[in-house]
Write a structure and sequence with these properties.
The complex is a heterodimer of chains A (264) and B (479).
Chain A (H helix, E strand, L loop, with lengths): L12 H4 L2 H17 L3 H17 L3 H4 L3 H18 L5 E4 L13 E3 H27 L2 H10 L4 H29 L8 H7 L1 H25 L17 H22 L4
Antiparallel strand pairs in A: 1-2
Helix pairs in contact in A: 2-6, 2-11, 3-6, 5-6, 7-8, 8-10
Chain B lengths: L1 E9 L8 E8 L4 E5 L6 H8 L2 H5 L3 E8 L2 E2 L6 H4 L3 E4 L12 H9 L6 H14 L15 H13 L5 E5 L7 H16 L3 E5 L3 H4 L5 E6 L2 E6 L1 H4 L3 H7 L6 H4 L10 E12 L2 E12 L3 E5 L6 H6 L9 E6 L2 E2 L5 H5 L2 E4 L12 H11 L5 H12 L14 H13 L5 E5 L7 H16 L3 E6 L2 H7 L2 E6 L2 E7 L4
The chains are: A mainly alpha (264), B alpha/beta (479).
Chain lengths: 264, 479
């Protein structure tokens, strides 16, 4: 089973960058996509991030979340259609001929545009953060955040949150199998998910709490909170990092100019 | 090195002390092995000896714990205690913090105030000692149980402490993986390390144990030279599981009609590109007691998951009581095949033992639940726990509750994955006697086990698997 949001050992362009360059990349890309409301620009940004994932040999892992993104896209568009009707009406979500509710939710051009903007933003953020986490060892991340003077306890909390994702994923599957073997059939779809909450979530949370106790003790007993550390295999800025930092600086300046001139 | 003097401890919100007037001395360079029934206080003893109880837990504490002659209370933090003592907990998975094996060990080394060159040398040395060099870039989450235990041990060794406390480091490991851990601990002892070891597998460690301590209900009931301690038959039964006579302890029903209840035909199963089962064919007949043995990763669990369709064949067929599993749902199969997983905590979610058993009955639409629940609890000797919270039970009791949950559903075939994991000799024998009793009532019993003693003394037939294939299938006496 593939682990979600966990480091993958590879030798790619993004893997060779220092965490600092990747953090700058994430910040610039995130700000650009959050501020911009230009559909073409956002679509271009999606393509650019995917291209970078391809160059970094991470496209396969990054695209594993396509199903989630597709579902979220549909949800975003339906929500905007219902809550933000705007512009020309293209059709109706419930066909006009349907008794009682027919024609009550118009599909408007403006709502679709907003839905697509949200979808593209979501895609950019998910892809960019995935690339960051897939290519950065937690140890390097700890060191970088430490240098940025972030308190060690907060850094460890962040690392632990990430570390628990595969644990919960694996554990959840085991519990699901154990309950299925007891004849449990919660059904599929949304109702099934609701019904399966107690038999799956209670053991999952109970076991996770026990695990978190052991994990917390392990962190203490390995001395991670002492604050003293020997710097071994420190990553230093290389040509790729300078390239990325330079590209981000140019992109930021270009973006500000275009934004000020209301081009994007 | 570590001294416990009349230590008593009661966890918060409980009345019964987990440790009671416990005194123990662990001298430099010695190996002290602690064993006893589940719930006896072994893990609490580890926490007390490491000073963790004092610094991290509330509850009522009495007595004195000293490390290197200094009261644990005098150590300012756990981090300071960590400069003296290394501890490996029984849950290896929970101790994996980073994303590669090398990162896990290197991160532990970086916090010891060593020179960079020394860190690299020590990293290489620990990797070699724990046989992890080939796994350096692997994700810890994808390793086997034995490999994870070795990583947890290696990260603790990285601290360079002379005292190691190990809480059941081999509980879920097969023979090969256990022998590896024993080999590593033997070499550590030879290097002069002091070891406090909680274990159930005395036979594997007997050559290195200097002092054997047996706990029961929080108190030391035996302590001293292992040979002396084991002269007491009652103690011996706790320390060394003895399954002799289990097969004949109940009248085994004669299999008059050779009717297969499980038929596996040319079954193969692949996880992605990894072939876990490779063209397996076998029949299991009604009323048989079958042991499936083999190392971790040999395909045992993958095979039995096909019996109730938790897994579907990549190729081949599985036929349960004459019906191909492809034509059945998991719920239908749950009526015929009960599967008890290795870790009972994966299934418990109800507020009481009774509700936990009732869950399965409701899923099958069974009426007359109360009578069935009582009968199942009687079968496993847990009637007194009927209204207790399942997670409050000891590991041995939880294992028996998991069996009760399955037998209440009256499946004709009961499959158990490592049912004696983490149990002492008496508890393990009790579980096997319960299974033998169920066989006597007409159930077909299939047990996955690493323990060849169980296979030899309890089962009628032993199927041995290796690398996804059945390499032998013979009556128990012929092994």
């Amino acid at each position: 089973m593939a682990e979600i949001l966990q480091y993958v050992h590879k030798d790619g362009f993004f893997h060779r960058l220092t965490p600092v360059s990747k953090i700058v990349f994430i910040i610039v890309i995130s700000l650009m996509c959050i501020i911009s409301i230009n559909l073409v620009f956002l679509a271009g940004l999606v393509v650019a991030v995917l291209l970078l994932a391809y160059i970094s040999r991470l496209h396969r892992e990054v695209l594993q979340q396509s199903k989630l993104i597709l579902v979220m896209s549909v949800v975003f568009i339906i929500i905007t259609l219902i809550t933000m009707p705007n512009g020309a009406t293209i059709g109706y979500l419930i066909p006009e001929g349907t008794p009682l509710l027919g024609g009550s939710i118009p599909i408007t051009q403006g709502a679709i545009e907003i839905g697509l903007i949200l979808t593209f933003r979501f895609m950019i953020l998910i892809f960019a953060f995935q690339m960051f986490l897939l290519s950065t060892q937690p140890r390097d991340l700890v060191h970088t955040l430490e240098k940025m003077r972030m308190p060690m306890d907060y850094i460890l909390m962040f690392i632990i949150a990430l570390r628990f994702i595969p644990t919960l994923q694996i554990e959840g599957n085991r519990i699901h199998e154990a309950q299925l073997a007891r004849g449990y059939n919660p059904g599929t779809g949304f109702i099934g998910k609701i019904r399966s909450v107690a038999p799956i979530v209670i053991p999952l949370v109970s076991n996770a709490l026990l695990r978190s106790t052991v994990l917390g003790l392990t962190i203490d007993m390995r001395g991670y909170r002492t604050g003293k550390r020997t710097h071994v295999r420190e990553s230093t800025l290389k040509s790729g990092d300078y390239g990325v930092l330079f590209a981000m600086a140019i992109a930021s300046c270009g973006y500000i100019v275009l934004f000020m001139n209301q081009v994007i | 090195m570590i001294e416990l003097e009349k230590v008593s401890y009661t966890y918060p919100h409980t009345v019964q002390p987990a440790l009671h007037q416990l005194s123990l001395s662990v001298k430099k360079g010695r190996c002290v092995m602690v064993t006893g029934p589940s719930g006896a206080g072994k893990t609490t003893l580890c926490l007390a000896a490491a000073g963790i109880l004092h610094h991290e837990y509330g509850g009522k504490k009495e007595g004195l714990v000293t490390i290197e002659g200094r009261d644990v209370a005098a150590y300012a933090t756990l981090s300071e205690l960590a400069t003296m003592i290394g501890i490996v907990f029984d849950d290896a998975e929970a101790q994996m913090i980073f994303t590669t094996v090398e990162e896990e060990i290197l991160s532990a080394l970086e916090h010891r105030g060593l020179e960079a060159q020394v860190i690299e040398e020590r990293l290489a040395s620990i990797m070699a000692t724990t046989f992890l060099a080939e796994l350096r870039n692997r994700s810890p989450h994808h390793l086997s149980g034995g490999q994870k235990q070795r990583v947890a041990l290696a990260a603790t060794l990285a601290l360079g402490n002379d005292v190691l406390i190990l809480d059941e480091p081999t509980s879920e490991l097969d023979e090969h993986a256990t022998r590896r851990i024993v080999e590593i601990l033997n070499s550590l002892k030879a290097q002069g390390k002091t070891l406090l070891l909680v274990e159930h597998k005395y036979a594997h460690f007997k050559d290195m144990v200097d002092t054997l301590v047996v706990l029961e209900a929080g108190s030391v009931i035996a302590k001293g030279d292992p040979e002396e301690v084991l002269k007491d038959e009652r103690i011996k039964r706790i320390v060394i599981p003895d399954f002799r006579g289990v097969r004949s302890s109940h009248l085994t029903p004669a299999i008059t009609v050779k009717s297969p209840v499980v038929t596996v035909q040319h079954l193969s199963h692949a996880y992605g590109e990894v072939l876990a089962l490779d063209d397996i064919s076998l029949d299991i007949h009604a009323g048989e007691f079958v042991a499936i043995v083999g190392e971790n990763g040999s395909g045992k669990t993958t095979l039995v998951k096909h019996f109730n369709r938790l897994l579907s064949p990549t190729s081949g067929d599985v036929i349960i009581r004459g019906k191909n599993t492809k034509a059945s749902t998991i719920t239908d199969l749950a009526r015929h095949v009960g599967l008890v997983f290795q870790n009972p905590d994966h299934m418990f979610f109800a507020d009481t033992v009774k509700d936990e058993i009732e869950f399965g009955l409701k899923n099958l639409g069974t009426t007359d639940g109360d009578r069935i629940i009582d009968a199942a609890l009687e079968d496993v000797g847990l009637m007194h726990t009927k209204h207790l919270y399942p997670r409050w039970l000891s590991r041995g009791e939880r294992q028996r509750l998991a069996i009760a949950c399955v037998i209440a559903m009256s499946p004709s075939i009961i499959v158990l994955d490592e049912p004696t994991t983490g149990l002492d000799g008496n508890e393990a024998r009790l579980v096997m006697e319960i299974l033998k009793g169920l066989q006597n009532k007409g159930h077909t019993i299939i047990v996955i086990t690493h323990n060849k003693e169980i296979a030899q003394h309890c089962a009628d037939r032993i199927i041995t698997m290796e690398k996804g294939k059945v390499i032998s299938d013979s009556p128990a006496g012929g092994m």
